[in-house]
Amino acid sequence: MKDMFVKRHALVVYLFIVTPWMLSAQSVWTRSNGTVTFSKAAFADWKLAPNQDRISDSVWITRANTQSIYNIRKDTSYAANAPSGTLWAFGTTDSFSTLSYLNFLPLSGNSPQSLIGKDLVLHLTAENIYLDVKILTYSGGNTGGAFSYTRSVKPGATSVDNERAAPARFSLDQNYPNPFNPTTAIGFTLEKSGMTTLKVYDIVGREVATLVNGPRDAGVHHQARFDASRFASGIYFARLQSGGKTMLKKMMLVK
C-alpha cells in the first residue's frame, strides 16, 4: 500500500509539472497557408505601424536606421537577444521540431546579409508559433535599416497583405514615406469584404501600376508597396476601389 501511495503521489506531482507546459499548444504556419511579403524602406520611420511587421500580439518586427531587427512591441531598441520573444533556425516548418534554434544574430554569424535567400523557421516563443521565413533583402548597418522578407501566415487567414486588426471602414491611408524614393507603403481598410483594386496613375491619368487586384476582407488593415524605381520624378495618384466606393491619394516621387 505504501508503494502504491508513493507511485500515485509521484504521478500527481509529475502531472502538475508537465501539464502547464502541455497546455501551451504549438501552432505551425506553413507556406501552404499563404504568405505575406513585408518590407521596410531605408530611413522609413520604424515607430510607425506600416514599418512594423505585426506578426502576433507579442511580436512586432522592425529595424531602426543603424541597427539590426528587433521587437518594438517589447523592446525600446535593439539588444543582443533581439528580436526578443523569438528564436530562429535554418530549415522549414516541415521539420520544425528537429531544428536547432538560436537568437537572430548568432544564427547569422553576426552577418544578417548571409541569411538572404535561406529558408528559416521563426519561433514565436510566447505563443509557441512556428512559421516559415525567407529574407529577401537586408541593407548594411549604417544605410537606413532597410530589409524585407516573405513569411507564412496564420492558418485560415484570408488576407495576407497584413494581419493587423482594423476598423471596418473604407479608408485609403496617405502613403508613407511621402515624398518617397523609390518605394512607399500604401495602407487601406474596407467597409465590406469583396473585389478590390489598388492602382497607381501618373499626373495625366495613365495607369502605371496595379498593386492589388482581387478579393480582400473588411476589418483587416491591408498594405501594399509601390516600387517606382523605373518611373520619373513627379506626382502620382493611388486609387482604391471596392464595394462601389473610390478613394484617391496624391503621392510625390522625388529622385
Summed up:
This protein has 255 residues and is mostly beta strands. It contains two helices and 16 strands.
Q: Would you write up a description of this structure?
A:
Residues 1-23 and 158-166 have low confidence and may be disordered. Strand 4 (60-63) and strand 5 (69-71) form a beta hairpin. The chain has two domains: 27-152, no CATH class; 171-253, Immunoglobulin-like (Sandwich). The chain has two helices and 16 strands. The strands form four sheets. Strands 1, 2, 6, 7, 8 and 9 form a six-stranded mixed sheet that branches. Strands 13-12-15-16 form a four-stranded antiparallel sheet, with no helix packed on it. 11% of the residues lie in helices and 38% in strands.
Describe the secondary-structure layout.
Layout: H1 2-23, E1 27-29, E2 35-40, E3 53-54, E4 60-63, E5 69-71, E6 86-90, H2 104-108, E7 119-124, E8 129-138, E9 147-152, E10 171-172, E11 183-189, E12 194-202, E13 207-216, E14 222-227, E15 234-242, E16 245-253
Parallel strand pairs: 1-8
Antiparallel strand pairs: 2-9, 3-4, 4-5, 6-7, 7-8, 8-9, 10-11, 11-14, 12-13, 12-15, 15-16
Q: Which key features would you list for this structure?
A:
2 domains; single chain; 38% strand; 255 residues; Immunoglobulin-like; 6-stranded mixed sheet; 4-stranded antiparallel sheet
Please outline the major beta sheet. 6 strands, mixed
SSE ordering = HEEEEEEHEEEEEEEEEE
Overall average pLDDT: 84
Radius of gyration: 22 Å
- According to DSSP, the number of beta strands is 16
Tell me the span between the first and last alpha carbons: 85 Å
Number of domains: 2
* Count of runs of 4 or more consecutive helical residues: 2
The percent range for strand residues is 35-45%
- Uncertain runs are 1-23, 158-166
Structural class based on helices, strands and sheet pairing: mainly beta
- Overall geometric form: globular
Q: How much helicity do the residues have?
A: 10-25%
